[in-house]
Specification:
Oligomer: single chain
Number of helices: 7
CATH architecture: Alpha-Beta Complex
Strand order of the largest sheet: 1-2-3-5-7-10
Structural class: alpha/beta
Radius of gyration: 20 Å
Mean pLDDT: 77
Largest sheet: 6 strands, mixed
Strand content: 15-25%
CATH superfamily: 2-enoyl-CoA Hydratase, Chain A, domain 1
C-alpha cells in the first residue's frame, strides 16, 4: 500500500513577498497602490498639510509598507490640494510640547526622512505648492523632485527666536534643518539655512539645489 504524502504547508520563508498586503487605514495620509506605483498623499489641506506626530506616524507606516511590498517599484509623494506640498511643522502641536518632547518628535521625524531617503526604491516628490521647513526637508529626502511652477521653497522657521543664530552653523537633528543645508550649493546654503531664502523654482537653476523637473500648473 502506497502511503500518501503529508500536505505541504509553506513556511513564512517560502511565501512569496508579492502576495497582496492588507490595505492601510491612515488618518492623515492617503495611501494607495496602482500597478507597481504606491501613492502617498499628506491629506491635511486645511492646515496646508502641516506635519504633526500622527502624520509622521502615518508616513512611516506608508513607507514601511511600500518598502516591504515587492510589487511596489516606486513611490510618488505629494500633498492634498493645490496650495501646499507640506508647509512645515504643525505649530498648534509645537505650542504644547516641552523641550524634551520636541527633541523626541524631531528625532522621530528625522527617522522617517531617513526611511524615505534609503527606501531602496525611487521616491518622486510631486511638489504642488509650499514646501517649507520640514516640507522642504521631505522633498530633499526624495530621489527626484518635480515641482509646479507656483511651488515655493524655504526654511522660514529658523528666523524664529534666538535659536536661529545657532541653527545656521550647527548640524541639527530636527526635520527641516539639515537636508536642504547639505543639498544646496555652497553659495546659497547659508541663505537657505538662515531662513533668508524662499524662492520659486524658476528663480534658480538646477545647479543651485532646484527641483529636477518643472510642471505647469493645471488650469
Amino acid at each position: 500500500m502506497v502511503s500518501q504524502a503529508a500536505p505541504f504547508t509553506p513556511s513564512p520563508a517560502t511565501v512569496p513577498n508579492s502576495l497582496p498586503r492588507a490595505a492601510l487605514a491612515l488618518a492623515n495620509v492617503q495611501y494607495e497602490k496602482k500597478g507597481s506605483i504606491a501613492y502617498v498623499t499628506v491629506n491635511r489641506p486645511k492646515v496646508l498639510n502641516a506635519l504633526n506626530t500622527p502624520t509622521w506616524t502615518d508616513l512611516q507606516a506608508a513607507f514601511e509598507d511600500a518598502k516591504a511590498d515587492a510589487s511596489v517599484h516606486g513611490v510618488i509623494l505629494t500633498g492634498a490640494g493645490d496650495k501646499a506640498f507640506i508647509a512645515g511643522a504643525d505649530i498648534s502641536e509645537l505650542a504644547h510640547v516641552d523641550a524634551y518632547d520636541a527633541e523626541e518628535s524631531s528625532r522621530f521625524g528625522q527617522g522617517v526622512l531617513d526611511l524615505i531617503e534609503n527606501l531602496g526604491k525611487p521616491v518622486i516628490a510631486a511638489i504642488n505648492g509650499f514646501a517649507l521647513g520640514g516640507g522642504c526637508e521631505t522633498a530633499m529626502a526624495c530621489t527626484i523632485r518635480i515641482a509646479a511652477e507656483h511651488a515655493k521653497f524655504g526654511q522660514p522657521e529658523v528666523k524664529l527666536g534666538p535659536a536661529a543664530r545657532r541653527w545656521r552653523h550647527a548640524a541639527p537633528a530636527a526635520p527641516g534643518r539639515q537636508g536642504p543645508c547639505v543639498a544646496a550649493d555652497p553659495h546659497r546654503r547659508d541663505d537657505l539655512c538662515a531662513g533668508s531664502l524662499s524662492h520659486r523654482p524658476r528663480q534658480r537653476s538646477r545647479s543651485r539645489g532646484q527641483p529636477d523637473r518643472l510642471a505647469p500648473r493645471r488650469s
